[in-house]
Amino acid sequence: MLQFPSKREAHVSKDQLIVSVKWMVDREVAVCGLFNRVSRRPKVKTFFVLISGLGDGGAWYSLILALPFLYGQSGIGTSLSMVKVALVNLVLYKIIKQITGRPRPCAVSTNITVGTAPLDQYSFPLGHTMHAVAFSIIATSHHAELAWVLVPFNSLIALSRIVLGLHYPMDVIAGGLIGGYVASVLTTS
Question: Are 147 and 140 contacting, i.e. CB atoms less than 8 angstroms apart?
Answer without folding.
Answer: yes
